[in-house]
Predict the 3D structure of the following.
Amino acid sequence: MDRVTTVGKKPRAVSHLSHLKGPLLIFFVALYFFFLAGRIEEFPMPGQLGPAFWPKTILILLMISCGIKAVELLFARSKESETGEGESLPAVHYPKLLAMIALVIAVVAAMEAIGFLLANLLFLILFLRVAGVRKKPLLFLTSGLGTILLLYLFVKVVYLPLPKGYWFFDDVTIFLYRILHLI
């Protein structure tokens, strides 16, 4: 081979692994924080999780996600090299993106006033609608079950007190908590 054809080209293995920089970096940062979380002093009350449980759990899930993403990138690169064509990214739809950002800001602002339960339910319905979910049964089922799952996770597993809202929203939240056997 002459020098002209090899200048500027990376070896195949190095260019193949360059797509894994992001997931690998996040994986090793999460691994570092996992070992730091191991230094948290634990004196859990009987029947409750210790203070290091949730940080370690989230970091383990983050590391698993990075591994899944790395495998996904490897398979995508192998498919791309077999077909010879790269996958182009879809165009960004800025009005939808801005609407989704506005919904996230609005749910944070409304959560204290109307409570987590109603704010999250409305947020999920509107967010999924903006994202493109059109079938109403799927929209309401996903939003309702997602809200109930988050309520059980935060109230029963994590013991996190969630905002119940003001005025009659407090009464509605307490009523729904009782129906769901959260209190």
About this structure: The radius of gyration is 23 Å. Residues 11-83 form one domain. The chain has eight helices and no strands.
